[in-house]
Design a protein that fits this description.
The protein has helices at about 1-15, 35-50, 55-65, 270-275; strands spanning about 105-115, 115-120, 120-125, 130-135, 135-140, 150-155, 165-170, 170-180, 185-190, 190-195, 200, 220-230, 230-240, 245-255, 260, 265-270, 285-290, 295-300, 310-320, 325-330, 335, 340-345, 355-360, 365-375. The protein is mainly beta.
């Protein structure tokens, strides 16, 4: 129909006019000397392979209503949102307290609804002009999907949650090494991924895919939450065209003897190039090549969301108890608990719990929790 086609064309034009030139708040490590041309070519091919195709109306409808049997809906849940109280203390079910507006609030979690996007029960508005970055590449709004783990930076001057930036970084991207369907697990470049009944699977065309169709050798991009060393809980798995480039996003535990440890995965890297970064102890994204046994890293970027937010509403798993009564999350965030911290859903927080944490950012690695919701 001409009217609908014209509207689609207008929407496409709007999507192409988004603000560009955003400089991400992190530093990058250059390729090893002598490999510059090869890496530039490989990275170019990788980025080309990651380009999002236009989404058909049928895909959009499936995306907005959830994909059959996943349990993901297009409604936010004010009864589970942090900060929400009956009668409206806070911004009416948004999970964000209104004391001084939303100055620099960041939200990290899984997209579980559209219309706006719903993340951690928070309804966040966005427009065709909102900058959207996926794995470091500028994308259109229709590249967002249910099940993606996002970082949303809200506008400081807004009295209701409105996105200034939406960023997606896949936890794992590369070839599938092994599939254990009976255990609902598979491995990608050495990292173990588990799925459940709510995990979304999509084929290379963006259409729903049954998990049992996943095979070794397929190239995938996995969104999810790290649970423990080397184990990722998948929220969305997308099959992609094959590419030699691979990536990992997670907590950088240590660097030693030309190796780094990201959430329990051993990755080969030139240590001399990392020494000046101070990246150890931060959430990072590493890009490189897979040699069949190990990932060889050529580029590293610090992705810790704390350094870009005054307040944070974040989702994840508890990985370690701390001596002061707080805990560390699997993404590396250190969460402090005080006598004023409200804990919902449980009497206490323990290792292995899935939590939402809302509080004030104390430093690049620390969050002073005001509210914590524990999911059993």
């Amino acid at each position: 129909m001409p009217g609908k086609q014209n509207q689609n064309q207008q929407n496409n034009l709007l999507g192409q006019r988004r603000l560009r030139g955003i400089v991400e708040n992190y530093m990058k490590i250059p390729a090893r000397a002598g490999n510059g041309f090869i890496m530039a070519l490989c990275l170019a091919l990788f980025l080309q392979a990651c380009n999002s195709e236009d989404v058909s109306e049928r895909q959009i409808a499936a995306r907005e209503s959830g994909i059959g049997g996943t349990g993901i809906s297009n409604e936010c849940s004010p009864d589970t949102s942090l900060g929400w109280k009956p009668g409206g203390s806070g911004l009416g079910g948004t999970g964000l307290m209104a004391e001084n507006g939303l100055g620099g609030t960041g939200i990290v979690g899984v997209i579980n609804g559209f219309g706006s996007i719903c993340v951690n029960g928070v309804k966040v508005e966005y427009t065709a002009d909102t900058p959207i970055w996926i794995d470091g590449k500028d994308q259109r709004a229709d590249a967002l999907r249910l099940g993606q783990v996002v970082f949303v930076q809200t506008k400081e001057e807004s009295r209701t949650p409105e996105a200034k930036l939406i960023e997606v970084n896949h936890a794992l991207s590369g070839p599938v090494n092994l599939v254990e369907a009976d255990r609902k697990r598979f491995t990608v470049i050495g990292g173990t991924v588990e799925w459940n009944d709510k995990t979304l699977f999509a084929d290379v065309n963006g259409q729903p895919l049954q998990p049992e169709m996943l095979k070794a050798g397929m190239s995938v991009a996995v969104n999810g939450l790290w649970k423990q060393e080397g184990l990722l809980e998948a929220t969305r798995v997308d099959v992609r065209p094959a590419s030699g480039m691979v990536s990992v996003t997670g907590f950088l535990h240590s660097i030693a003897d030309d190796w780094m440890d990201i959430n329990g995965m051993s990755i080969s890297v030139a240590r001399d190039e990392l020494c000046d970064m101070g990246a150890e102890g931060y959430n990072v994204r590493v890009t490189g090549l897979w040699d069949g046994s190990y990932m060889n890293a050529y580029e590293l970027a610090i992705k810790s969301t704390n350094i870009r937010s005054e307040r944070l509403n974040t989702a994840g798993y508890v990985s370690e108890d701390m001596a002061d009564g707080g805990f560390r999350m699997a993404d590396g965030s250190l969460v402090s608990i005080t006598g004023n911290t409200e804990i919902l859903g449980s009497d206490k927080v323990k290792v292995g719990d899935r939590v939402w944490v809302y509080g004030r950012v104390a430093s690049a690695r620390n969050i002073n929790a005001e509210q914590i919701r524990v999911f059993q």
